[in-house]
Design brief:
The chain is built from no helices and eleven strands. The protein has 121 residues and is mostly beta strands. A hairpin with a 4-residue loop joins strand 5 and strand 6. 27% of the residues are buried.
């Protein structure tokens, strides 16, 4: 069982900043990658940023240069620093972790409940 809890969402003006945090807890798992996805009303969920155990990162083009993902491996945490926010960044942001289980083969994806980010003046 793996649980992901996000925090840090809220309302911010265009050009402002927010820092999202996600902490993974549970037992009998090892994290391979963690990332952030978002889903705006009427749109499909999309990858925002992802980071691996080797600190390799991937970003969707629309956030490159503005968002930074980082990982705290010791506490199974991941952060998303969001700068220069735009109204189009408004969405529910979901934390994601891909893990291996001690007693099961393969990899499994887990999701947080989501945190609302609203960028509006």
């Amino acid at each position: 069982q793996v649980q992901l809890v996000e925090s840090g969402g809220g309302l911010v003006q265009p050009g402002g900043s927010l820092r999202l945090s996600c902490a993974a807890s549970g037992s009998s798992f090892v994290i391979n990658t963690m990332g952030w996805y978002r889903q705006a009303p009427g749109k499909e969920r999309e990858l925002v940023a992802r980071i691996t155990t080797g600190s390799n990162t991937n970003y969707t083009d629309s956030v490159k240069g503005r968002f930074t993902i980082s990982r705290g491996n010791a506490k199974n945490t991941v952060y998303l620093q969001m700068n220069s926010l735009k109204p189009e960044d408004t969405a529910v942001y979901y934390c994601n972790a891909v893990v291996s289980r001690y007693h099961s083969p393969g990899w499994y994806a887990y999701w947080g409940q989501g945190t609302q980010v609203t960028v509006s003046s």
